[in-house]
Design goal:
- The structure holds two protein chains of two kinds.
- Chain A has no helices and twelve strands.
- By secondary structure, chain A is an all-beta fold.
- Chain A is globular and about 45 Å long.
- By secondary structure, chain B is mostly beta strands.
- Helix content of chain B is 0%, strand content 47%.
- Chain B is built from no helices and eleven strands.
- In chain B, the strands form two sheets. In chain B, strands 2, 4, 5, 6, 9, 10 and 11 form a seven-stranded mixed β-sheet that branches. A four-stranded antiparallel β-sheet of chain B has the order 1-3-8-7, with no helix packed on it.
- Chain B is globular.
- Classes of the chains: A mainly beta, B mainly beta.
- Chains A and B meet through strand 5, strand 6, strand 10 and strand 11 of A and strand 5, strand 9 and strand 10 of B.
Chain lengths: 113, 119
């Protein structure tokens, strides 16, 4: 089975500061990795994904993430955040041969003026 | 294509009542998923369909829960004899079926969710 650990439940930052949200995963087989963002009272929106190829992937809203197989990590970063980035962020993993996503418990990013 | 639609968006019910949620996936997607999300937690997998076949069910899906996708298009999730612990957001998602490692495999598109409050 796969599992995901999001290392920070809350990340407060000031506007225009850089941010990194950390995600570690555990799996005995090959995986696909995802970050989803959830704004208040909304469903989940895909932020970025790693399926294959380059380990550095770019997503929406200026976010990027790096897949590190040796450290089993998939941290997401943004060099300069905006107030509008305030949301809950979820890391998720699935087997390359499977279908269901397993999610972490989420990281609440709060961007303060 | 309007994405994944869920109805109702909000449902308040009394303990012991039955509730039903509906999900309309993206039309060309043949996989459909149900997840449950409680406050402060990540979504938990409940079940998924490929076309009309229910291929996997989580142990979270007790006997009071039933999901159907009769014609391989929309799906319903019914909860019988609701309990206060059923209060949660119920999320539906869909994805295309692709073979091998084709890009787009396993990429789920989520609906806005149906929030259930059991009094």
């Amino acid at each position: 089975a796969q599992s995901v650990t999001q290392l920070d439940s809350q990340v407060p930052v000031f506007e225009e500061a850089p941010v990194e949200l950390r995600c570690n995963y555990s799996s005995s087989v090959s995986v696909y990795l995802f970050w989803y963002v959830q704004y208040p009272n909304q469903g989940l929106q895909l932020l970025l994904k790693y399926l294959s190829g380059s380990t550095l992937v770019k997503g929406i809203n200026g976010f990027e993430a790096e897949f590190n197989k040796s450290q089993t990590s998939f941290h997401v970063r943004k060099p300069s955040v905006h107030i509008s980035d305030t949301a809950e962020y979820f890391c998720a993993v699935t087997r390359t041969s499977g279908s269901r996503l397993t999610f972490g418990e989420g990281t609440q990013l709060t961007v303060n003026p | 294509d309007t994405g994944v639609s869920q109805d109702p968006r909000h449902k308040i019910t009394k303990r012991g009542q039955n509730v039903t949620f509906r999900c309309d996936p993206i039309s060309e997607h043949n996989r459909l998923y149900w997840y449950r999300q409680t406050l402060g937690q990540g979504p938990e997998f409940l079940t998924y369909f490929q076309n009309e076949a229910q291929l996997e069910k989580s142990r979270l899906l007790s006997d009071r829960f039933s999901a159907e996708r009769p014609k391989g298009s929309f799906s319903t999730l019914e909860i019988q004899r609701t309990e206060q612990g059923d209060s949660a957001m119920y999320l539906c998602a869909s994805s295309p079926r692709t073979s091998g490692r084709a890009l787009g495999a396993n990429v789920l598109t989520f609906g806005a969710g149906s929030r259930l409050t059991v009094l």
